[in-house]
Amino acid sequence: MGCTQGKSVLSDEDIDFIARNTAMKREAVEVQYRTFLKQHPDGRISRKSFHSMMKECYPGADTEKLEKHIFRMYDSNKDGHIDFREFMIVLYIMSNGSPEENLKQIFRVFDINNDGTITLKELQKIVKDLFLLINESNADKASQEVLVKTAFNEMDENHDGAISQAEFIEACMAQKKFSTMLTLKIIDVFIAEDISNHSRVASHPQMVEEHKI
Fold first, then answer.
1. Which CATH entry fits the domain spanning 9-211: 1.10.8.470, 1.10.238.10, 3.50.30.10, 1.10.10.10?
2. Which residues make Cβ contacts (< 8 Å) with residue 187, sequence separation at least 6?
3. Is the pTM value of this prediction over 0.85?
4. Rounded to an integer, what distance in angstroms lies between the CA atom of residue 44 and that of residue 65?
5. Most distant CA pair in the chain: distance in Å?
6. What is the chain's alpha carbon radius of gyration, rounded to the nearest angstrom?
């Protein structure tokens, strides 16, 4: 994605990549890009901009800790920015992808160190940061710990102390109670961020009803 006189330009390669990976028509990609540029004139979302987006959705809440995890889901090349290509791929998968494709994206939120597995420590960190954001009135430390350990045991099918992507997807697809509860809370955060005038592609109630995760 290049820059001409300070203004970001969407290359043909970018358009082709997005069209190929989302089944969107090229014209639709270009329309989405023009909308994206109105919000982000340099063609990408910085950590500061993403923080502002989260604060708009959760006024008065402590968004900083969880937003790092959500940001990581978008920033696939780990360059500290979310470009239009990264933004559209995640957005399209979360709103139009299969249940398995949705869950592969959500798995990245939980996999803090990007090693392909979720440890108990990582799950504890995500739950702590998630409940800090959504301000669960009854979410004391004891109830958080019960949720974490129960969900971890549900997901860790082979009891090796780490949850693989396949185990995570299987637990959620089987609608195991605590695994599904955590997954839907992450989707809630994603959708709240998504509808803050940055894009209106996704529909959370429809997603949950169709995919039943």
1. 1.10.238.10
2. 94, 102, 106, 204, 207, 208, 213
3. no
4. 21
5. 56
6. 18
- Tens of pLDDT, residue by residue over 88-139, are 888 888 778 888 988 998 999 999 999 999 999 999 999 988 887 766 555 5
SS3 196: coil
- The CB-based long-range contact list for 49-52 (8 Å cut-off, 24+ gap) reads 50/82
Residue type, 103: L
93-103 b/e (C-beta count within 10 Å ≥ 16 → b) = bbbbbeeeebb
In this structure, the chain runs to a length of 213
Fill in the amino acid letter for 126: I
Q: Which two tokens stand for residue 22?
A: 């989302």
Q: Of 105, 84, 124, which Cα lies nearest the Cα of 190?
A: 105
Name the token pair of 148: 């974490």
Residue at token pair 């605590």:
178
